[in-house]
Design brief:
By secondary structure, the protein is α/β, with parallel strands linked by helices. The protein contains nine helices and eight strands. The protein has an eight-stranded mixed β-sheet, sandwiched between helices. The longest helix has 14 residues. The chain starts with a helix and ends with a strand.
Length: 182
């Protein structure tokens, strides 16, 4: 078993004893952050830190939950780069604001309308920045990678078509563990 698979197995044990919802799970967010390190294009996008911008409407519970789960992981690093989490509100200047921040991944929360999700995907493709999520459904809708829970175990989902359009190139090690969706 690879080191990544071992870490996922250990996190699965934590998830089994955790009563929280999947969307609010810091453990699930930790699996996502570890999986992000398997994007072979990450080093081309990032500088001294890896920036995840959690994007959603103002006062949106799932956006706030995802931001809180990821913010709790600021002590983690990805490929020896510190993790930085930003909260960005969706508006007509989304792509410009994400570019100004220098974002490396766009965090997409659950329960966004198709219109809002489409706005985020448009910015993602324009900037070549992958959309990542804590929802398998958002991967099916066009996100490049996400983590969900199946039978109380974490499962990684990858949408290869979306990943390519969004500038991600996930390693074969990750793809062996992931469920591929279109």
């Amino acid at each position: 078993m690879t080191g990544f698979a071992t870490r996922c197995a250990l996190l699965a044990l934590v998830l089994l004893s955790t009563p929280r919802s999947a969307a609010a799970s810091p453990e699930l967010a930790a699996v996502l952050v570890k999986a992000l390190g398997y994007d072979q294009n990450l080093l081309q996008r990032s500088e001294d830190s890896v920036i995840i911008a959690v994007v959603g409407p103002a006062a949106h519970g799932p956006t706030d939950e995802m931001h809180a789960s990821l913010s709790g992981l600021k002590s983690m690093s990805i490929r020896k780069r510190r993790l930085r989490i930003e909260r960005v509100q969706i508006d007509e200047n989304l792509a410009r604001r994400l570019e100004e921040i220098g974002v490396d991944f766009i965090g997409v929360p659950e329960q966004l309308s198709q219109q809002r999700f489409g706005e985020i995907l448009k910015a993602s493709k324009e900037l070549k920045v992958p959309c990542v999520t804590l929802s398998a459904e958002n991967v099916r809708r066009g996100g490049s990678m996400g983590v969900g829970v199946v039978r109380r175990r974490p499962r990684i989902y990858v949408n290869l078509n979306a990943a390519k359009q969004q500038g991600a190139n996930y390693s074969s090690d990750l793809l062996q563990l992931a469920t591929r969706v279109n």
